[in-house]
Fold these 4 entries.
Entry 1:
Amino acid sequence: MATIQQVVKLTYEDYLATPADTRYELLDGDLIMVPAPNLKHQKVQRRLGQRLSQFIEEHDLGEFFYAPCDVFLSNRNVVQPDLLFVSQEREGLLSDGEKVGGAPDLVVEILSPSTADKDRGIKRELYSTYGVTEYWLVDPIAETVAIHRQRGGVLAATHTFGRGQTLRSPLFAGLELRMDDVFSS
């Protein structure tokens, strides 16, 4: 006689009980360990983060964060994007001082071999469902940034920028990011 195995889905409370010195994400109730990114990933994250952070601060647009920073989408979905932005209009998402309590305006994920499928798949779906305004998928190997914008409840690809191009986004009027600066060796 076959036995039925129940799948246990974890909650935010379970997530909070994980060790503080290890990065995890909670995706549809599954606890996923997030390994440290490689050096190219970290260089791209630093360069892109510095430029975005400076622009956001100079124009007093809101708050900018680097991973690890918990983004609580639901009791079974807690993510730690590489970079994220919350506008002044949505600063209520930061009210508990512990985490971002909802969908940021911008989420940036930098692809790594161990995370690329999740970033392109389940995490993109979650960001669509919970209302992230703009989602950037950064590929450090191809040296591209693909921008996805919310359209009818779905994050749709709008433009991909690569070497020799300048990224502009409707989310940040006046921002000009030279891709050569982001992906320089």
Note: The longest strand covers residues 154-162.
Entry 2:
Amino acid sequence: MHPHPDEKSLLVKARQGDAPALEELYRHYVEAVYRYMFYRTGDTMVAEDLTAEVFASMLTSITRYRDYGVPFGAWLFRIARARLADYWRYAKRREKYQLPLEEELENIQGFASPEAHFQHGALLDALQYLTPAELEVILLRFGSGLSNQEIALVVRSNANAVKSKVFRALKKLRGILERKEEFNQEEGLI
């Protein structure tokens, strides 16, 4: 996720309570925050609620935001991580990370062929085998479009460590998918 091209001036205005500046920041980041929440919870309504909570927190604390080496996007995703942690801590259902439901798969554009649909479903299934830390870096990198540097700021690490975590998680995913494909071929499922 790249910063808004006019982010510095928007932040100055937003800290002064300028509604159009706040709205522009919201529009720029809302989709990435929602995707992060959705892939972490697997529930559209929960993801919408948590996304709303993130931006409500942003509104109440924007006056305290200062760019001390942590870009606004990273600061916003720190809020998102905190809201998500609160959700899991207080949720009545303590299920392990769910992935999108079949109806959500149908909403994804570009999956016209059954093979492509199957491959996407296999990927979503494979994500369940990642550790929470691996899942987080994969979702921040590919689900929300953050760079390794931005992820490092969100998870309070360094870019090289994040790059390594992403590489290892992708290698693990590749292995899981290959084993599943071999199994499916042996069983005559593909």
Note: The CA atoms of residues 15 and 61 lie 9 Å apart.
Entry 3:
Amino acid sequence: MKKDITTLKDIEFLVDQFYNVVQQDSMIGPIFNVRLSGRWEMHHQKLYRFWHTVLLRRPDYFGNPVPIHFGMNIDEHHFERWLIIWNETIEANFEGIVAERAKFRGRKMADAFLSKIKKNN
């Protein structure tokens, strides 16, 4: 039986599993791999704190992640692919209230990021 996301270790596992798939994905992998070459560990550390704040309501992350994505030439297809991988990773490893929150928050963030990116272009 799968467990819910309840600890920072769970979030680290989720982020690591997710980006293992992203790095190999033919659609979004190249975008991430070019931008994060040699900096994956730093990116993971930032995302551990981000998702810890979002999912477990622990104030670990302070910042504005949206502007970093400006000028990346990404669109709704990229965000939809990101979301598919995100949801599949959650469903393969977790179940419960926080796991469902992670899927919901992933969708909300993808929509918000895309909207802000479109306004900036």
Note: Helices lie at 8-24, 29-36, 40-56, 76-93, 97-120.
Entry 4:
Amino acid sequence: MTMSSLKQYTDLFRQERVALDGNAPAALNAGRDRAMVFLTAAGSLPVKSDEGYEKTSIDEMFAPDYGVNVNRVNFPVNVAESFRCDVPNITTLLAVVVNDRFVPTTTLMKNLPEGVTVCSLRDADSALLGRWLGKTVESEDAALAFNSLLLQDGVFIHVAKGVKIPKAIQIVDIFSGQTPLLAPRRVLLVAEDGAEISVLKCDHTQTPGVEFASSEVIEIFAGEGAKVDWYDLEESSPATSRWCQFRCRQEAGSSLNICAATLTNGKTRNEYLIDVVGDHCETRLSGMAIGSGTQHIDNSSRLTHRSDRSNSDQLFKYVLDDNATGAFEGLIEVSRGARFNEAYQSNRNLLASTGARMHTKPQLLIYNDDVKCSHGATTGQLDSAALFYMRSRGIPLAEARKMLMQAFMVDVIEKIRLDSLRDRLRHLLELRFSGSCGDAACATCRNRADRQV
């Protein structure tokens, strides 16, 4: 019987508990014992035989002997290396996470509006951390427990009541190092009543030949009438594994828009847990995944309507080539007594080669009749008639394929409410499909005014 990879991390926890606690705020230390109890009872990280993990074994993803930066060593990094793509500039307030260490830039600190806090978890207000950390979705699971066990820092974003941020906050996650490394990462975003914020998070790998793994938890609280946009772009390396969970809570009248794009990666598992607890909410969850080579991309969602008169819409699209594999499992749940909700879910997939594989499983769980809900999935290949027509008009086959694949992703891009980011993503897709942006160090951003770490 093969030993679970979890043991190396629980052993590390027991050996380094003093150092872990000594280098982290009290709010993070408070969750370690509960996480250890959960993981000990589970016995292993999720494997393919577990429900919801049919195509992705987290245990295998974290099986290499990754190091953990328990003693908070500062790794050297050239931030400018992660801003090389010559694409249109986006004006943002920039912060950097090097492996698992938060590094604010001087531009960020100088230009934050009044009522907005962006800092490390260790520097955050202890009362706010105690109130919100780990509380957005009231459930314990493997992703949260594993992250909480070894977490020592993260990013805290707080927007006070009624404050509207004119510029997007940008968080650039960078992996850098010469030995295999696991980085536990956490972002806690709290938008108080009536607040508005947009966040762009980008994942990059600066040393592509080194094996890296990230355990990420993104917690988002949208207060009454708040508006939160979250955009997540992954451009990592074939040697990078990512396990990321979004835990979101919406109060009455709030609007949440999450759009994720996996452009280059190794193995990725994204989980979305969204609780709509207030009436009259709007939820938009969309994602695109482009896989080639042996890339693996798995998206899983569970969106729960617990109140009345809200609407949600989910759209995930995949384009898979070569021997890439993809998976999507989505669940819409409408609780008893949650009336007059509208909820829709769609997964559409394009297989551009005979070696590509896609697993899809959309689901509905409805406990009353006063709703409008639908779900569906399609998987197909490039339209041969369209290809023939385009080639008959003198368009080379490679160009025709690229144009059809770009067109397939248009309605996901349109979910983005930042005009400049929509333009950027169109450009990045063109580069990705043409094969001219395969370098893992290539990123979605450049020309930053401040690249100091």
Note: Residues 346 and 376 are 5 Å apart (CA to CA).
